[in-house]
Specification:
By secondary structure, this protein is an alpha+beta fold. Among the domains are: 1-132 and 149-189, no CATH class; 413-601, no CATH class; 612-652. It has ten helices and 35 strands. The chain has a 35-stranded mixed β-sheet that branches. Helix 1 packs antiparallel against helix 3. InterPro entries: AsmA, AsmA-related.
Length: 656
Amino acid sequence: MRWIVRLIGVVLGLAALVVAFFLLIPGERIAAIATSQFQAATGRALTIEGGVSPSIFPRIGITTGPVTIANADWSEEGPMLRADALEIGIEMGSLFGGVIHLTNIAVQNPVITLERAADGRVNWDFQPVSGAGQASAPPQGTPGGSAGPTPFILESGTLANGAVTYIDQASGQRTTLSALEAEARLPEYAGPADISLSGQMNGQSLLVKGRIGEFAPFLQGSVVPLDLTAEIGAARLGFEGRLGTAPLAADGRIDADLKDLSQISALLRRAKPELPAGLGQQGVAVAGALTVTDAGSVHLREGVVTLDGNRLQGEADLTTGGERPRLEATIRTAALDLSSLDGGQGGSGGEGGAGTDGWSKQPIDVSALGLMDAAIALNADSLLLGKAKLDKTRLLLGIDRSRAVFDLREVNAYGGRLTGSFVLNARQGLSTGGELKLTGLALQPLLQDLADTDRLIGTGDLELQFLGVGASMDAIMRSLSGQGRLRFGKGELRGLDIGGMLRTLDAGYVGEGAKTIFDSISAGFTMEGGVLANDDLIFAAPLIRATGAGRVDLGARSLDYRLLPSALAREDGTGGITVPLLIDGPWDDLRYRLDVKAMVNDRAEAAARARLAEKAEELGIVPEEGESLEDAAKRRARDALQDEAARALNRLLGGN
């Protein structure tokens, strides 16, 4: 603000020269006095071309030709200020002492250059010239070396068709505000000041209007009331509260609609953040009580943040002192839609189908994980995460160097509960893993959402450990590894009538209308390379018992499974009909076949074993408990050989 203070001092000095008009001093002499006094006060050369023209009607004032203020001696950017004309009007009473009362100030076509050197020096740091002709040191105890400007009143100040360029030599940043139109009013020096300005910056239109509650303290950097609105293209920002500039600090209410951040990013000459849908891709809005501390931290209370269609309420604290910004927040929301996080839609789905185009190969964008570290507590009435639909949810999210950990404290979904944790790691590529426990979940809607199939009805429990690596859902599913166990209660398997197949030895009992009612299903499994393997399935249904083993290719969405059901068996499990059922093919077009050949072979083998058992019984071969017929025969032969050897030895030794 010091350069503004100095320029105001110049204007006031020129206003005082109006007195010379009444003393009939020529304009050239007035210009010489003005330039001399300005250089003494600032250490910079002031050049007025075309002289100074005083006037008395319709107002007392002066008008200059082109005006130039020299830049700092270390700058190579040309003059600090150039203007085509400067007009100043003054109240008559100001000529006789007291507060300077300016009726108007008008600056035509100004071009202003603000510059920061690589070593931190700034060109708006003016220094008065000492008696020896050298710039003197700033007075002790004054902000920025200024003893404070002379109090004044400004009825109307205007700036027309101006341009302000800010240059940071350390970063190489150069920012220009062009087509600048500005207006200011200050009825009382220590009172409120009204300002408005418009212009173009980095291709974006900018409009600012505001009221500074206490102008004099504000110039010194003190915290004062501020009411401000800004429009950047279609984006809008409003602030009402208190603000100080030395150091920067603020406390008040903010109401901002930042749209999709493209115009804000362009204004700041930054790349637009690549945010996922649901997290600000289409629009960002913030409202609440905002505090900015002199340490650079930002705090939001009673906050309402709208990201696309998601409306979040809560509190947040953002600190910037570490290696990365860190956000700590508590968030409450009725419904949170993060469906975009599945990387796009996969198969087409349908009745009992899984789609024909497989898992989505669209890259999953998790670049937002690298923007900052975070510790966020979320309470949501509902949550759409990828394709999964969750009900009341309480979870903790921790982000550390692009690695996000979700701690599931309470997740209600599909009529059951989900606990555990999972990780999204974007430090080197993308990987995901976790340990989850699901209890009492409704299977049909769950599998419909996650696997595009609705063939299984009932409730179930699942314990799962998993790890997947890849940039898309397709790559992750093809890389899955881990293990788990599932248990289902009473339910229904649609599209397959196992009992009908066994009764008729006809594999055609499939498709719409076919179903198998079951009492329970349990199985353990392992996963490697996106393929799930199982060898201990137990299937229990009325009049049917079955075991099973096989493979489920999760990446290719296909199945190769052998089910061994037995129907109409006795209560002890014996008897009945046993026919292997082969199930294979893609999920959306499974093929069912009865392995009759295996059944015939099994029956032939069973008949052969029965005949062997009868023959063994005739030979006196009786298996002991837990002993096979083959082992019993070997034992019987071994015993017979030992008995015969004992008799032969006895005869050899002359025994009876």
